[in-house]
Amino acid sequence: MYRLKMTDEEFSGMDMEDFSEDEDLQEESMISLKRQLIASEEIIRNLRLSNASQEQTIHNLVSALEKLRSLHLEERKVLESIKIPNLLSSFRISDPSSSKVVQPAIDYSQHPLLNHIIVSNIMQRLPLSDVIRCRLVCQSWWGKGNEELRKRKLIGINYRNIENLSKFAKLLETSGDIPFARFRFGLFVVNTHRVAVEDFFSVCGPVITHIALCFANQFCEITLEELRDLFLLRVPNLEKLDVERLPLKLTKELSLFPPGTKVPQLRKLKHLKIWDNMASDNRMDSTYSIGLLHDLISMAPNLSKLSVYTECQHLVAAALKSLEEKRIELRELRLESISEENLLYLTRLRFPLKMLRIEYFDTLTAPESVKSLLTTLSFTLEELHFSDYRVMNHAENLVVAFPRMARLRVLKFRRPWNDRRLLFYPLSFKEQLPCLKKISFQHEQGSPPYCIHSYNDFVNPETTGPSETVEELEITHELDSVLMFRKLPESFPKLKILKSTDSSNEIIRAIWEFLPNLQELYLTLSISNRNIDSVITGIPVEVYRQICKENLYSRVDGNVLEIIRTDPSICSLKRLSKLVIEGHQINRVTDFSCSFALIFLKSLTSLTITDADITEDCRDLMKIHLNLVHLEILP
Amino acid sequence: MALVRVISSDGAAFLVSQRLAKRSGKLKTEIETFRKSSDNSEAQPEIRIVTIRAEILRLVLQWLQQHQNDPVLPANQNEQDGRGDAEMGQSQWDRDFLAPMDLGIVMELILAANHLEVKGLLDITCKLVESKITGRTVDEIRTAFKLKSDFKGNEEEQTRLENRWCVEN
């Protein structure tokens, strides 16, 4: 057995005194000595005495050998007791110069474990288009590819391809391993295609894990009997049921299973999503019958995620009642709106929710009710999505103080409609939200930017104190106050990821200036971001225009750039590893930004620019200058 | 400074600090098992890795040493929020480390990283393999991975037809 020496660097920081006592090391020095002895002897034996210089060399070697021998005479006994195989070169772990190119020793294509690791670790990360191709490589890749497709591919069956459904069923009948498990049915008349649907489910039914139904349209038709017998009763392994829309006359009917019949149990069904039709004029009236909702929930004894998108509070109450009756322990709940009464009901049920999303609170909601709901969830909730508070008249703001949410990691605010709002006060990140990682202010394009209010509640270091845990911030609405933006670094000193939509040029410049530690940046540009190249490069608009107009690109070298870059630029984000810019057709990112700014982002490994006006040459330039793992530029 | 001897399948012994070795999930367990079973708490653990040869083991240790101060990520971080990779980032060192390697060596490293439970190394090596698959044709993939089509009868044709449905719908 031989030993690999560690180099000095490896021992740096180790306690050398302790170390020299180590018996192993003494042993090691002896081995290395022995090796030197053997090596020297070997050389002497093999050399031919042909000229003087060699004689001299040999003389030196021999005397060195003698010297070594006399020095370590005593140790020789020990040395001889250690068995040493043939002379082997010594490796050093940390010395890159010794890392000669290693030759492969296994035939990896035949290695069963390797194949398993590759298909299981890698295929799940590949884009679907590659997974599809990988299915054709060999049988083991095919098998794993099938699994991935069943997890990821949703196939839509609708008026466009319903005529081919029988053919599809026939094809899958001969499949050794049906690779599709997720289907979305809708927009066709079920009765006309009854035979095809039956055929299809007799082949695929047991494989299907996800079904989405969308039949609420004048062009399609489905009856209660068809829904039950053709779809719901033929999928014993269903995991997710998404009832997007059903026709009015169907949802108005009392129940799926006539009284007295046994409700079939889909034990694997974990996730149920129901959307109300919103076809009625009065949005408070549901188009769903309580019976239908009750039956759907009753079919799923192991339900853990429920989404009910309706404004009708009778329906919400019915859902809660069914859950209570069936003693279902819900983990995720998403509701469009909730009344004060249902809020109290939900609080009483004490679900161990990890995720809660409520779009609107009712006008009559009392702040204490929201707080007591959050208190019951304070040890389980990890993700909370709220929209603002819906009011009919000029009601007061709904002011809620968070209890201490011990596990809350993600907080999202979505789509507020008016400025009467849900306000969190008093707020201290450290006391109330000690684990918060991500805050998101989402807003739909075109709505007025009132959402700034919630931004202001949370990004206000004077009142909230800083959060040492928040790493990610998303602002998907127009934020145009630089003053407000400047509070960001103080509020979230650990901020690493910023997603910003429709920010003004001033805000983008402020990002360069105030957030130099960003590691990921997602910028979605809007029509207002004129001269985006100038903003990115920090070259003032007049200079930028002149360079473009007179085609002075080649004149701009490093020195010139230093002089003309007078404003903050993206180059100050020295740690940026991922950059995504969604351009705007009017304000495109061009070669200008790439050559005068992006190529200086040395940490960048992933770059995506859409709606870009970037030439092939410039793309190559970026490949040369940057160590990109991912580069995607779409015109 | 506590040390541990890690011995490769072909008998090469690497003397490394336990702190470094413990960054491998497998070695950590082995060291702990040794501690429990050994009466002498000062004894130096010796761990034989019968599946990994010296040259590969050296590469793994070299990688571990370079990354000894990285934060240890929970094993399921990736699955949890899908962000593990991005946070890790791939350093210049890693790129230089992998650059001269033949695909076969990368494959052996994957096996070693998997066996020794070194998640970061498994990630970067798998990523490299991933890049050999994305955007390639079936034949290119077969050549790169030295795989042969082992489909029987009309299995390949069946798969092609299914793929067409998959792409079109």
TrEMBL record, chain A:
Superkingdom of origin organism: Eukaryota
Pfam families according to UniProt: F-box
Coiled-coil stretches noted in the UniProt entry, renumbered to this chain: 316-343
Keywords associated with the record: Coiled coil
Keyword Coiled coil: yes
Entries under InterPro entries matching the protein: F-box-like_dom_sf (IPR036047), F-box_dom (IPR001810), LRR_dom_sf (IPR032675)
Domain (F-box): residue spans on this chain: 118-141
Protein name per Swiss-Prot or TrEMBL: F-box domain-containing protein
Organism per entry: Orchesella dallaii
From TrEMBL, chain B:
UniProt-listed InterPro entries: SKP1, SKP1-like, SKP1-like_dim_sf, SKP1/BTB/POZ_sf, Skp1_comp_dimer, Skp1_comp_POZ
Superkingdom field: Eukaryota
UniProt pathway: Protein modification; protein ubiquitination
Domain SKP1 component dimerisation per the UniProt entry, residue ranges: 119-166
SKP1 component POZ domain: residues covered: 4-69
Keyword Calcium in record: no
Keywords: Ubl conjugation pathway
Keyword 4Fe-4S appears in the UniProt entry: no
Family: Belongs to the SKP1 family.
Annotated protein name in UniProt: S-phase kinase-associated protein 1
Source species of the chain: Orchesella dallaii
